Amino acid sequence: MPVSWSEEIDGVLGGDLTAALTYLTPAGGAVATCVAPVGLRDRQAGWVGFTTSLGFGKKLDRIERDPHVALAFHAREHGTSHSQRYVLVQGRAEIVPDPDEALLTLVWDQAVGVLGPAKRGRLFWDRWLREYYAVRVPVLVHLDRILAWPDLRCAGGPEVLGTSAPLEPPAPQNPPKGGTGPRLNSARATRRCRAKRHQLLAYRGADGYPVTVPIEIQRAGPDGMRLTAVPGLLPPGGRRAGLLAHSYRPQLIGLTTRYHTGWLEADPEGTATYAPHTAAGFVGPPNKTLLLLGNGLIAKLGVRSARKAGRLTELPAGMSPMLDRPPPRRLGPA
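RE: above sequence
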């Protein structure tokens, strides 16, 4: 039976401008990254969606290999929901490389309504953004469970909808062969992450679903980044974990993100040390025109590289058919 949810939770799923997508790695770790769900959901069918780029082949390969993912709805600014609930949905992801007309139209209309009118113009913008839309595909997360905490700090026990949550935390993991200590400058990583408004930590749960919870990065120590969370949120012991820190402006303009993978050592009281092993990030310009110019260029270069490598023989349909339609008189709110 599909998971059903309340009107308040539906307002969160439909109103948050961004969510944290977490997927699993073959080594038992987790990677958390930002996505724009743009309100994609179907209460009757029990799924929540987002779009991603075919250019992110590594992420898509990992999702196809293990479709267990989580979406954390944790940020209310610039959205439409006024609820204080932290909503974590867990389920199995389905990548839709060739969406039908109904899904394509739904994605486009939702994106325009949330992110503002698309740049249109047959002389420049439609051509410049064709690869950007062509390599974007919908991903539907068929929900198995929803965890809804009463506040954004995840204090108190969550309401559980769908499959029952495990009663015990996941067991500690074996340390990696390369050691558990920091492989990056922890002080620099701490400064960059603390500058972002939202800070989250993700790990593999006891039943194989990712878990993503809010944290606060306090300071850097000799053995890594010092974190705190509500007691009981972080599983005790050592394990591979992902860290995400990000900030954003209206319509996701000026989005800045910082991603880490690393090793977490936590205790039941909510204090932990995180040793960063890898890092990546993205800084979007605080101007929509400059952002779209950059996105279009990155997409064109990505398609060109994929063709040279033999991974792409022809441009996929993606969302680009929407550019073949004449622009409607009103595309939606800015």
